[in-house]
Structures are given as C-alpha cells and as structure tokens.
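## Example pair
The file below holds two records. Each record gives the amino-acid sequence first, followed by its structure token line.
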Amino acid sequence: MRRVVSVWLPRWPIDRLRRRHPGAVPDDPFALVVSGEKGVRLAAVNGAASASGLRAGMALADARAVAPSLRTRTADAAADARDLRKLALWCTRYSPWTATDGADGLLLDVTGCAHLWGGEAGLLADLRRRLDALGLKSRLALAETAGAAWGLARYGAFPRPEDAVVAAGGLREALRPLPVEALRLAPEIVLLLQRLGLKTVGALYGLPRAALRRRFSSSELSAAVVLRLDQALGARDEPLSPLLPVPLYRSRAAFAEPVLDGAFIAAILDDLLADLCRVLARDLKGVRRLTLTAARVDGTTATLGIGASAPSRDARHLAYLFKEKLDALDPGFGIDALILSAESVDPLTEEQRALHDREVDGARLAELVDRLANTLGAENVEEIHGRESHIPERAEALRPAGAARSAWPDRLPAKPLRPFRLLARPEPIEVMAEVPEGPPLFFTWRRLARRVARAEGPERIAPEWWRNFQGADDPLRDYYRIEDVEGCRYWVFREGLYGEVSRDGRPRWYVHGLFA
C-alpha cells in the first residue's frame, strides 16, 4: 500500500529569503511583490503583514491602504524554485522518491521507509523538527494518496501532531470535513461548487455521478471534479514522477550529531558499501554506477559518483574508487545523513576469482580500468568493444570506459577462425595463383616474396547492403587462411568476384591480418 507525505511551506518565499539573506525580512509588515497583467500584486507576506490582514494575491495599492507602512521587495521565483528543488533533494534522507509540488510544496513517497524512524508518526515528527530548525514554517500530512495528503496538509485540522497520519482505510472520513478546495480544483470550479451548495468533500460522496455531471454546463468541468475526487480516494491511479530516478539499491546511515571528520565519513562509507554488496550478492547483481549523497544540517546536499567498467560487488574495490574523491566532499556545517545509491546494476553470477593463488586477469583488468576512469575521467579512457558488423575492420570500435555493453555480440553465431592481429587497414599484395579464382601459390608483401605451403578457404564476406544502399560501393571479399613455407600464417582476401578486375586486368589481393 502506498504511503505519501505532503509538505506544505505556506511562507516559502519569505522563509527562503530570510535564510539566504539574514536581515532582509523585517519584523514589521513585509511582502514580496510581482508584476503582472493586473498590476503589481503581493506574492508572499510575512507574519506581521498577515496579522494586518494582508494576503498573497492582493493588489499592492489595496495592501498599502490597509498597511501604509508595508515594505516590499521583488520576488525571485526562479531562486525560490531552485532552492525548493534543493530541499527536495535533501529530503532523500527519508525516501529515494521525492519531488517538488507546485511552488511551495514537496511530495515524498515513504512506502516501506517509516520503520527507520519508529513508524510514520516518528518520520513526520523528525521531518517537522528538521524543517523548524531550518526556519521553515510547514504543515505535513501522510496518507495513502498524494491528493489526500495534499488536501490534508493545506486544509486539515490536527489537534495532535500524530493526527496528521491517516491510517489505512481512513481516507473517506479524513477528507469528509475538508472544503472542496482540498481536491486541487481550479478556482472557477470551486466557486461553482460552492454556489451549488457543495462546500465540503463529504458533500460529493453521496451525489450520483450522473447528477453531478448535470449540474455543470461543461462535461470537462464535471470530469475534473470526478477525477480529483477519485484520485484523492484512491479509486483512480495518479501518475507521479520523482525528482531523480529511484535507485535500484540503497543504503543509508543517520547521525545524532553533525559530522565533519573525513576519516569518520570514510569509515561509514565502508560500512554502507559492505551492506550494499551483501544485498547485491544475494540478488546476484553487480553495480555499475554508485552515488554517495551527504545530507547537510543546513538543508543542502553534496554528492559524489563513481562508475565501474564491469559489474562489481567488491566493497574493497568500490571503496578505493571513492577514496580519492572523498576529499572533495564539502561537509558544510556538518553532515547528519549519508545515502549510498546504486543507480545502475547488471547481473553478476558467482564466479571463481582465484586459481592457484592468482586472481583472474579479467577481474584485475576491470579494476585497473575503473581506477583510471575515475581518476582521469571516463571520457579519457577508452576500450575496444564489438560492433554489429561482419566487415572485419568495422566489427570493433572504441568507447569510453564503463559505457554500457550491448548484448548483441553474445547472440551472434560463432565465426570462423580470426587472426590474432588485424592490420589497421588491408595492405595490397602481389599474388600468383594456380587458377584465377583459387588461393595464392606465391605472394609478395612488403617487398618480400613468400611461397604458400597450405591454404584454407575461401570464406566469403559480402558487403553490407544497407551501406551500399546509402551510396557506398563496397565489393565482396573472398578470404583465405594461408601458411608459408616458414610457418608464418596470414589472412588474405581477393576483392570482388572473379572477373571484377582492376584496370590492369589483374585481381586485387590484400593481406588483412596475421595469425599467432
């Protein structure tokens, strides 16, 4: 069952300005203003202005008539949105699923997370306490749906703090006394409902849907009311998108006191990696990308990320990759939570990692690539990988270390024997053959004549028709594996079908690779 927390920050622009610029918000009536089509209006007010009867949305001229001493400042909506997003990232200490909600709210999906705080009431209490410490006035509610949590946070009455948690199955009763504004309806729809005498959410419960539709002049308006009511009650799903992709695996540690010591942070990271790797081993998974998020006491976060060229659950190796980056982690005024998130994982079955006291070379090579990539930057370390092409020189390419591997080469049928060394480009040779379409008897390469002792082939490799379709003119090739009298083995090919000859009337031959 889903559990969602809605956080409403009724004075967010004012509180944000006070935190960013101490002394900018006076104790006497103060408001942030915005200019629009209807003139200058109040965007947010402080407590003194609210006590004087001012509210957001009032025209500035009307506000000055009520409070002549009102002081104003232009609102910064972009900065408000930017800092609200940072606060949502800070809330990942409670859940990996967080998002901003409008211009003054947050949503947290805390399904399966509340036990870390002793229950849902404990989670809300901890969140409320931390927001108060940041100087942010807030109202919180927890329910089964985002719509219900949103309405309760803004319009609910909670005699006790624990009443902000709606138990499973209690949505209808919790929403019944709330005004229809709690359904997140447009102002014109709210006004129409009030004129019809439907002032509370509970008044809509017993009203047949057909009768509700008849009361509206537009089917779109009635559909909006039905949709929001169903979403709040959980009768209809509401798609919600988190601010960041939800990590596949996650490990966290919280501290009673803010932490500044780098050695202590490194020790905690070792513990987090060990816990995460145990879970990965249980699921036969390996991590490709890890992110360490540090939640600071001032409501901000700092992140570090590492990548692996191959799936890994070796805590020692992963800790080494973080080692050089930990010095760059700024604890600010202190860190009170560390969250380790596995952003990308791949299957990793159990394998033998040692043979006669020597590690498998492939595993050591992957660790070396990881260390180079995380030190020099993944874009500066490249590796060769297979590519979907049967033309030899196009069947491999360079890619940044740690880039996702395609499963395509694993599905290809087994190819005939290929040379140990492939030349950068085919080099022309002079050939004498017993018959024009047969293998070479003699050939000259790099000014040295060689006599062929034995030959295998041909292996015909046709051009890629889709490239020819795009204007390329690639002839087919007949490849031979040949060995000279000295035991050297070569991979040579004749270009084009017999009869497709060069200007001098002789077939074109090339050496393309060398066998070990």
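Second record, same layout:
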Amino acid sequence: MSRKVITMDRFLEIKRQLELGIPVIQIAQSLVCAEKTVRDIRDGKISEPNKCKDPSFPFWSEKADWQQVLSEVLDGHPFKFIWEERFTKEIGYKAFLDQFHKRYPHYKRATTVHRYFAPGERCEVDYAGDTVHWINLNTGELVEMQVFIGTLGFSQKIYAEATSDQKSRNFVESHSRMYRAFGGVSKVTVPDCLKQGVTRTHLYDPNINHSYQSMAKDFGTAIVPARPRKPKDKSLAELAVKLVLRLYRWRFRKITTTSPEQVNVQLSEVTEIINNKPHSRFKTSRNASWMAHERSKLSPLPSGDFEYSNFKLAKVHDDCYIEVEHNYYSCPKEYRGFGVKAKITERRVEVFYDLERIALHDRHKGHHGAYVTENSHLPANARAYLEATPQNVLSQAKFISEALYQLIDELYQENTIAHLRRTLGFVRKAREEIRMIGSEKAKTHIAKAINQMKMFNKIRVQYFQELLLKMRTEIPLQSSKIQRQPNPNLRHTGGAQLVLVPNNLTEGESNGSPPN
C-alpha cells in the first residue's frame, strides 16, 4: 500500500502531546500512527511533516478535500450522501468512514444497541425539531410547517407529513392519517412528552391528554410516552426524523416550494424513497418487510371516519344546563351542582359523569346563546310549562289562520324555547287585527304579511305589525252622494227626502226598481 505524507495538523498534535509528557505508545494509539514516527519527532529526526510517511492513510485520500467534507458533515448532511457524490468511484462507503474517523476521531459515532420489536407491537411518533418552509407567492412570506414523523417498530416503515402547527387537533389527526397509511394500528404508540399528548409526566403513571386518549381508545392502541429527556426511548422516531429531513433538504435544496400541499407531496416522495431502499445489511427494504411480516399483525382500523373530539370540564347549573362553546345544553336535574365532563365532536355533545354518559345532544352551530333542551332532563314544573305553553299557542294559531299556524309550527321545529315569546306576539297581533277589521279580511292580511316576512327572511313581530297596519290603511272606503227622493211623511206631498246613495248604485236601484 502506498504511503501518505503526514498532515501538518497531526504533526503539530504529536509535538503538543510530547510536550505534555504523554507516553509515546499512548500518543501512537490515540492518533493512529506508528510509534517510530512519534519517536523520530521527539528525537528531532523529523522536523517537517513532509518528511514523515504514515502507512495508515491510503493514496486515494490524498486527493480528497477533507476540510470540505468536514464542513458538510457539520452542516448536518449524512455521510452516505457525501460519499455517493464524491467518492463512489474511488473507495467503498466503509473505507471512507474509516478514513474520516482516523482524521477526526472526536466525531466518531458512539456504539449503539439494537432493539428488537415483534411485528405490529410498536409505533413511535415525534415532531421534527426543525421546520420546513414554503413561500407564499401573493405576499412573499416564508411560512413554516411542522413535520410529524411516525415509524413502526419491526419493519421501521416511515410516515411523514407537514402541518401548520403542533396543536392538539393536528397532532391527533396526524395519528389517524398515519395509521391509515400503515394499514393498521400497533398495540403500543410511543410519543414524546409534549403537552398535546401528555398533560402530566410521571415515570410510572403519566396523565394522557383527553383528546389523545379518546383517539387511542377509538383505534385500539395503548399510549406509552417516552421518559422526559430520554430520546433513546423512541430512538426509531429520532432516526426517522434525521433520515427524512436530511434527504428532504438534500433532494429539494434547489427547488422553491410554493404551497403546503407541495410540501406534503415532497415529504411523501422522500418517505417512499427511504421505505423502498434495500437495507445494506439485510438486503430488504422497509416496505418489503412491512408487507411480508408486519402488515398482517397490525390491529384492524376502526370502521368509519375518525372524528376529533375535544373535552371540557363543566358544572351543571341550577337551571339544568351547562355552557359549551357559548351555547347551553341540558343535563338531568339529578346532577345540578355536580361537575361533569363534556365531549365535543363535530356533530355531537356528550356529557359524562364518572364515566357514565348522562346526556347526548346534537351540536348547535348557529348563533351563540342557544338552548338545546331535552325535556326529560328538566323538573316536572318546568317540563309542564315547556310542554303546555307551545301547544296552547299552536292551537290558538290554528283557530286564527292556517298560514299563522304553519309559521309557528316551523319556528317550533327549529327551536321551541327560543321562539316561544315571538310566537305569542304573532298570535296577539293577529287577534288585534281580527277585532279591528273582521275575521275574513284579517285572515287575508295575515297570510299576505306572513308571505312577505318569509320572502325577506325577516320573521319579526314588529315587522308583522307594520305590514298589517299598512294593508289596513290601504282599504278603499266607499264614497256616497246625497240624492233627494219623495217622502210621504213630509208636510207637502211629493216633497224630497235626503237619502245616502252609494256611487256604485244607480237612481233606479235606490228606489227598488231595476236599472235601465
């Protein structure tokens, strides 16, 4: 093997250690060089590094720019990528690593212990410490995205996606998409001790976030958080983070990303490359190992789409209601004054007391301040009032006008309690109209007013009253004229009598004879 001239750094390091009085054998072992070389430098036989040959460095490495290699390593780029770009034709990957570590022994990796997990047993998840970015072309803003990483324990198949933040909703829904990408659920899921997953850390009995625990229950997995400040408890996820981000930055370093969707497409390409790449020792890829051994061992996915749920602690008020997101939901009267837990999903609100569900409501998504009531939850006197009064109003409206009855029925279908006072106002104004102009004309006016309120979507008592007044004042009054007719009771026979004759009657009709 050819010999290489010893470098100036190594020559100066040997002299420095000799001045400190370190034995020759120890210097030769630490700097990986011959003992004769160290003695010659000590005795002054070698005064310049160019006169010293070191057989531990092959000739090919003389052409390498090791300072540039070190700079790229310190930038976080993996050795594999550097070797593939620069030294594939000169030397193998193992020899390249050996030469690098001989020159820079303090960068040598620590020894590792391989952990074995049965197929379908374990899944580790984590957020990458670094973020990825995309540029908003409309504003020029550089937008950061958080990278969620998950990996299976046996096959080490990797899943990655980017979300806008690490809040609880994104954290939980990322798990849902990860399990569906894996085609099943592992028996154990190992997250980090972030607040979205663990509300209180403990070596033996940590407290899991309610939304996260609900997701785990739906998918049938156990949450076993890693210990605080113990990254080796989830070393597979830590390794996956490094693999994904390094390849992502290397592969797309010259590409400008302009949307969050493009970021996720790029991450999908990166994970596909990693999962399909054969292992250098086992000669099989992550995907092949997952298909052959692990996929069938995963627990089946739950039927239907996953629905994120949020939880809130509340106290049942004396009126039998709890406040959830600015609206009010009824609870059984027996639990007044008790603390309960509300589970809030996209469609429902469930109320629990000591793990027992005591109420179930459809979630109200309209205006704030709405009351969602189950009459069976209320005391007898309140239930009687709510049940009797609306029926009484409906019966009155049906007697007054069919159009008014239909309007009030539609309002009660929407929300009986919210529209009770309004419907009472409609009935009262309709009765006043009947007293003023009579039943037949009032029914016509009421029907027209209701149609106009629906047309403009303005169901208000005051507007209803204004419409009735307007139609009432527009009734044409019959004008009359004075006409004199003979009256036998007057002093002179054939005298005239003042008679009011409508304009629409002729003179003949006023005398009882048919018109000409």
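Notes on the second record: DSSP finds 17 helices and 19 strands in the chain. The chain has a mean pLDDT of 84.
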